[in-house]
Amino acid sequence: MLPKRPAGALNLIFDADDTLWDSNIHFLEAETAFVDLLARAGVDDRREIRAAMRRHELCIIESHGYGRRPYVIALHRVAEEVAPSHHHDNLRDAVERIGAQLIDRHCELLPGVAPTLGELARRHRLLLFTKGDPREQLRKLDRSGLRPLFNRVGVPVEKDPGTYRLLIAQAELDPSRTFMIGNSPRSDINPALKAGLSAVFIAHPHTWELEHEEIDHASGRVTVIDAFPHLLQVF
Asked: 139 and 94, same structural domain?
């Protein structure tokens, strides 16, 4: 049971991937293994491979959403596109092995996350709001042991101003007392600001390139910190 919080408690909304635990580094390692696999099949233009990967990633997100299994489907499509046909059967099996390792990979908590959240949960109301495949994200949350600290967990298809406004309404949040905390300018910070929230940005060295975006600092509602435990000084 969550402890009773003080009267001045705030609403703190957290992203998960690369905010609470490492995630994108696993995709980068899978990408490296995939590029090396195609090189052994005679496809040695790594720039062409990565361009095809980005193209198929975007297409698969539109049809299947975010997640590790959709990413593996994209790898299969890339292999079929760029590799000679006589390699396709062997590549399908090899891509599945890369995919199985990616899907089963345990996501390690980032330094200081567990004790920091434990302390914040005594002071404030914590919510988790992270996009992706719900089953995948909830499994990672359960493995992390952090679920009991959150009053509410949401896994939307996308995180844009509209989904933040819906969360505000459904969770009955006061925007003036609510902060979004995450590593992605595109999904965590800027759309939360557009929805009227404040935000805390925590950079991660392996944030997915498609999540990069200029942060809107003009609002005056963004705090930038270097490490997760610094949240204890902010809140």
From this structure: no
